[in-house]
């Protein structure tokens, strides 16, 4: 199988600065692909720094397996992903201590590491990973938010979410004392796609609108641009970031 990847991040229609960071890498032998999205918080400078640290550290640690060609032999991808997350968390905390103006900075993080058709997904926060399989879109991550907890315990109904003033408050993120990530493993098939995004996309564009924009034979670049443009047309109130992998 041949992975094709594209990504795009945009400041959105309202924000003055982009605190999202994205990156991706495909191994030379096409057996592995690494996709990363982070959405920073803690003010313009803090959010931008935190998301950059998270993504750069992930690419540094896990990207080494792709560059060496050893990832396909790695017997514990979850452990390697958590090690990268721990190091990123430590670096963010050290930066916070060194600069009091960054004391509140942190970031979400979602990682998809595909090894020989198996996707290993780790995340903290409300940036998401979706699977597109047989023309259906399925979210494969659970938001680490107060509002998600309220939905699950029945305190509110889905229609109430847009009216909850603290709906974006996170229960887990990098920069906290502990950064233990949620993890899942998916076996992919030829023709499947993985889509990673920040909440700028989910907040601006209903999921029901996504499939028409990313279906068909067009390139990943074209499909990613379609999603971001549709978000901007809807006056996206947050930064919008998307990384899309298509497995041919």
Can you summarize this structure?
The protein has 6 helices and 11 strands. The chain has 248 residues and is α+β, with helices and mostly antiparallel strands. The longest helix has 26 residues, at 43-68.
Features:
28% strand, 248 residues, Phosphatase 2c, domain 1, five-stranded antiparallel β-sheet, six-stranded antiparallel β-sheet, globular, 6 helices
Find the CATH topology.
Answer: Phosphatase 2c, domain 1
What string, H for helix and E for strand, traces the elements in order? EEEHHEEEEEHEEHHHE
Look at the structure and give the mean pLDDT. 93
The total number of structural domains is 1
Can you count the helices? 6
Extract low-pLDDT stretches: none
End-to-end C-alpha gap: 6 Å
CATH class: Alpha Beta
Helix fraction bin: 25-40%
What is the structural class? alpha+beta
What fraction of residues sit in β-strands? 25-35%
Radius of gyration: 17 Å
Write the CATH architecture name.
4-Layer Sandwich
Largest sheet: 6 strands, antiparallel
Q: What is the approximate shape?
A: globular
Please characterize this protein's 3D structure:
This protein has 248 residues and is α+β, with helices and mostly antiparallel strands. The chain has a single domain (3-247), classed as 4-Layer Sandwich (Phosphatase 2c, domain 1). 33% of the residues lie in helices and 28% in strands. The chain contains 6 helices and 11 strands. It has helices spanning 43-68, 77-98, 146-153, 199-204, 210-214, 220-233, and strands at residues 3-10, 20-26, 32-41, 106-107, 109-115, 118-124, 128-133, 136-139, 182-187, 193-197, 240-247. Strands 2, 3, 4, 5, 6 and 9 form a 6-stranded antiparallel sheet that branches. It has a 5-stranded antiparallel sheet with strand order 1-11-10-7-8. A hairpin with a 5-residue loop joins strand 2 and strand 3 (32-41). The mean pLDDT is 93.
């Amino acid at each position: 199988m041949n992975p094709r990847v594209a990504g795009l991040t945009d400041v959105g229609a309202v924000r003055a600065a982009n605190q999202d960071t994205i990156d991706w890498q495909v191994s030379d032998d096409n057996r592995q692909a690494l996709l990363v999205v982070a959405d920073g918080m803690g003010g313009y400078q803090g959010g931008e720094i935190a998301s950059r640290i998270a993504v750069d550290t992930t690419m540094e640690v896990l990207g080494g397996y792709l560059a060496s060609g050893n990832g396909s032999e790695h017997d514990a991808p979850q452990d390697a992903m958590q090690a990268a997350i721990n190091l990123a968390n430590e670096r963010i905390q050290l930066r916070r201590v060194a600069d009091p103006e960054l004391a509140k900075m942190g970031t979400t993080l979602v990682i998809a590491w595909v090894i020989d058709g198996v996707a290993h997904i780790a995340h903290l926060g409300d940036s998401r990973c979706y699977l597109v399989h047989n023309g259906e879109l399925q979210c494969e991550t659970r938001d680490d938010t107060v509002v998600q907890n309220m939905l699950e315990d029945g305190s509110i109904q889905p229609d109430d979410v847009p009216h909850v003033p603290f709906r974006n408050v996170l229960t887990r993120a990098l920069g906290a004392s502990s950064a233990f990530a949620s993890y899942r493993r998916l076996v992919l098939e030829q023709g499947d796609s993985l889509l990673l995004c920040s909440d700028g996309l989910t907040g601006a564009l209903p999921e029901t609108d996504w499939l028409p924009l990313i279906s068909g034979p067009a390139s990943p670049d074209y499909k990613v641009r379609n999603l971001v443009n549709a978000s901007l047309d809807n006056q996206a109130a947050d930064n919008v970031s998307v990384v899309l992998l298509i497995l041919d």
